[in-house]
């Protein structure tokens, strides 16, 4: 007997979460961008900034594996706070042996920023982690995740989190060193 096909990504809602972030959100986490497996940009065409293992094992240990949305800022270049989706888990398609946090910042960067500080505000849950029969189905689902994050973040209570003091002044050079809300 054949297994049923995965649910169509097109059937998923593009508005995620309640009208404003609710507990346990927002979750603030930061750390240095580390080298990952190199699959996001090369295999998927969706580059990711990998959170350090300490952030995944300490600050994010209390939330379930899955895909999340929110805001991210890399303290390199222009320091803009941008929309993001984050995969937190085992990435079953790739059979990872350790839990990882991979942040896709919805922006095209021209340079790598390994070693730079990344600040992430997680505002809501997108979906559970899934295994996929093909790379194409995985990419299709990630594209829907990205669209849902962009639509969901347009709501004012979500939008204003990008101005939280956790982030260094949006789109400006770092002029002061603010203490993050979550120490790693």
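Q: What amino acid sequence fits the structure above?
A:
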């Amino acid at each position: 007997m054949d297994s049923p096909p995965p649910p169509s990504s097109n059937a998923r809602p593009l508005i995620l979460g309640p009208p404003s972030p609710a507990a346990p959100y927002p979750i603030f986490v930061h750390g240095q961008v580390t080298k990952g497996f190199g699959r996001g940009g090369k295999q998927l065409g969706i580059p990711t900034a990998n959170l350090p293992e300490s952030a995944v094992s300490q600050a994010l240990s209390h939330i379930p594996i899955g895909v999340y949305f929110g805001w991210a800022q890399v303290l390199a270049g222009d320091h803009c706070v941008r929309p993001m989706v984050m995969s937190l888990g085992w990435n079953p398609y790739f059979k990872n042996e350790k839990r990882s946090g991979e942040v896709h910042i919805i922006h095209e960067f021209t340079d790598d920023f390994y070693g730079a500080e990344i600040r992430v505000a997680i505002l809501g849950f997108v979906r559970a982690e899934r295994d996929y029969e093909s790379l194409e189905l995985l990419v299709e689902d990630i594209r829907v995740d990205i669209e849902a994050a962009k639509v969901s973040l347009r709501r004012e209570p979500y939008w204003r989190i990008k101005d939280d003091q956790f982030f260094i002044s949006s789109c400006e050079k770092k002029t002061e060193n603010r203490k993050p809300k979550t120490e790693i």
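Q: And what stands out in the fold?
A: Residues 135-153 form the longest helix (19 residues).
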